[in-house]
Amino acid sequence: MPEFPEMENYRRLLSKHIVNVPITGVTVNREQSINVELEQFKKSLTGARMVFVERRGKHLVFHLHDGRRLLLHLMLGGLLFFGTEEERPSRSTQVEIAFGDRILYFMGLRLGYLHLLSVKETQAALAKLGPELLDKRMNEKRFAELLKGRRGALKSMLVNQQVFAGIGNCYADEIAFEAALLPTAPVQGLTPESISRLYDAACKVLSEASDIGGYMEIPFMTGDTVTGGYNDSCKVYDREGETCERCGGTIVKSELSSRKVFYCPECQHER
Fold this sequence. Notes:
- The protein is of the alpha+beta class.
- The chain contains seven helices and ten strands.
- Pfam families: Fapy_DNA_glyco (PF01149), H2TH (PF06831), zf-FPG_IleRS (PF06827).
- One of its GO terms (biological process) is base-excision repair.
């Protein structure tokens, strides 16, 4: 599932290519991916312009010139591609939004959605999301305060969207590794020093992953050399059986609350 860095990478790329470009056509191949009647959706978007692209957690919010919003959640397997019909990957598309001869393809939205909403509806849809770890208002002190009273495993807390928005399986494991903490470490047992390491690790991993394009395998457009740049930078995620680059131990895979967990048992600890 695309997480904070993947959606932030998409936001940056989309902002360069579609802002203030008139929408010339709309195709919907799966009506379950949208929330209004097909003809209403097409009529509302055709001729409209997107004036701003915002990211909130794992969501993208497209601000339309008339004040309405398009709320996108790719969920599991979703991805975006921008280009011509000849360039696009050989995958089924659920929604296509044309900007002249180039089209923004929404693929893999079997579980995801693209909803046309008012400002208030958008705010309500995102209201339960927790704060962003890279928000300017976030700092180590506030981070520590948000952990007070929390119980359970570290990874379970990190992927809880009501605690912190945008982190999923991959980056929870990478953050835990960077902080030298086990994903299974009890949050209530973390020391002030380990909380400080955790905050620094989260900021570092999310920033670096966003800057080098996250782990999406398919480029956003022809000539895109950024998207997917983090694929080879993961230290533990999906690295079962490989050698830990920090201590030489062996990366293992286990399960926590039905989620895959990757970590090094040699250099990651409970504190």
